[in-house]
Amino acid sequence: MTIKAFNASDIENMPQRVRANFINSLSGFKSGNLIGTTDKHGIDNLAVVSSVFHVGAHPPLLGMIMRPHSVPRDTLQNIKDSGEYTINHICTDLVEKAHHTSARFDSDVSEFEPLGLSPQMSEQVKAPYVLEAQIKLGMQVQDIQVLAINQTELVIGQVVEVILNETWVSQDGYVDIESAQSVAVSGLDSYHTTSRLGRFSYAKPNENLHHLDIKTGKARENS
Amino acid sequence: MTIKAFNASDIENMPQRVRANFINSLSGFKSGNLIGTTDKHGIDNLAVVSSVFHVGAHPPLLGMIMRPHSVPRDTLQNIKDSGEYTINHICTDLVEKAHHTSARFDSDVSEFEPLGLSPQMSEQVKAPYVLEAQIKLGMQVQDIQVLAINQTELVIGQVVEVILNETWVSQDGYVDIESAQSVAVSGLDSYHTTSRLGRFSYAKPNENLHHLDIKTGKARENS
Q: What keywords is this UniProt entry annotated with (chains A, B) (predicted)?
């Protein structure tokens, strides 16, 4: 076991691709989602994104960082044009197809077709869900801003529809995304299943934590 | 298996705590980190945060969403005052202690002491690392902005130091955070270990994906 410290200039001096892999690994595990959109001509688009994150619950908001010159550029343009998109959790069975959406398919090709996935329409959003996904969110754009520091774009959307198996929703609102087989992502290309260590009670300074029952969100007996 | 669709008013009408659990689960898996800071009087602070995300690799930037009126308010104030903080991956052994930092300890109490954790200083940043953590990042604030849509604050920092076991760094820069036992978080209180499905090659439209070797980042034979 050799502990190493990298300083700012060590990082700056890495080859570009090495630095990209290195820094993309360091935030910790990430969400893995497929973003569904439709362009002005009615052609659907699907892009793998690992940058979706929680912004707030009331109103229900999720953020997403987009690089204007990277592959999901069609996605960003479609979101700007239509104002709507879907977020579809990547589950274990969909990992390879999801990763394949990062290929540079032509703009006039819907990624659904070559990958053998099915668009699913809804009355709530003008963008396709992935039929095969297990947890699907319909989103309306609330704000898009360019981050001055590196010209990436922060897209903030409001959750206007949630489609999932009701049995995964606990009594206290927690959604068991592990039972839904949603995957976690690390770095640019690594996908992981998960195994729950536990749900823990709201913490107080001088009390031990309790394990919570997954389904009720209440402290377990003898925990 | 009962598929249910929740629309915007179903979500709006949930009790506040249920909606918080529900929406916090829906982004997918999140990073689990302990944020180390020091206040003006030299008292250390440690707070569990699941909102750290990747912003860019060059310069190396990570973002973090902070709620001004939630428990890590000391953390946000300290970051504003000192301009520096540390991000420490929560590993399996640290889950209970990490979750416990969310208790409302008094501002004049360093969370390190009651939780039995050790601050580790560095010449690169004026904030304490968690000695017991396996992956540690030293951060300098680059930008803090209030998101107009819900008054949360987006903190963007630059990675100026990375301390980890060199054997986890692959030849192509990927960091094997699973071998480091970094955990994934779902919702507000659930912690998970991971199991890798695979690293996949850069995708091209008409080519099958290859499995990559974890340590080299190169396509495996017969993959």
A: Flavoprotein, FMN
pLDDT above 70 coverage of chain A, percent: 96
Rounded CA-CA distance B140/A206 in Å is 33
Same domain for B74 and B183:
yes
What pLDDT score was predicted for residue B72?
Answer: 64
Ordered DSSP codes for A18-80: HHHHHHHHHT--EE-EEEEEE-TTS-EEEEEES-EEEEEETTEEEEEEE-TTSTTHHHHHHHH
The CA distance from A202 to the nearest CA of chain B, in Å, is 8
Residues of B in contact with A114 (CB under 8 A): 205
pLDDT category at B220 given cuts 50, 70, 90 is confident
B171: containing domain: 29-192
Q: In terms of domains, do B173 and B223 share one?
A: no
Query: How many residues belong to chain A?
Result: 223
> Do residues B138 and B217 share a domain?
no
Q: Categorize the per-residue pLDDT at B163 as very low, low, confident or very high, splitting at 50, 70 and 90.
A: very high
Across the interface, whether the CB atoms of B103 and A205 are under 8 A apart is answered yes
Range B146-166 average pLDDT? 97
Residues 95-154 of B with CB under 8 A from A: 95-96, 99-105, 114, 122, 124, 135, 137, 142-143, 147-150, 152, 154
Q: Write the residue in B23, B59, B159 that is nearest to A150 by C-beta.
A: B59
Q: How many domains does chain B have?
A: 2
How many residue pairs bridge chain A and chain B with CB atoms within 8 Å of each other? 382
Question: In this structure, are B129 and B34 located in the same domain?
Answer: yes
B122 plus B213 within the same structural domain: no
Choose the closest CB to B5 out of A148, A163, A183.
A163
Q: State how beta strands B60-66 and B153-165 pair.
A: antiparallel
Chain A residues within an 8 Å CB radius of B143 = 147-149
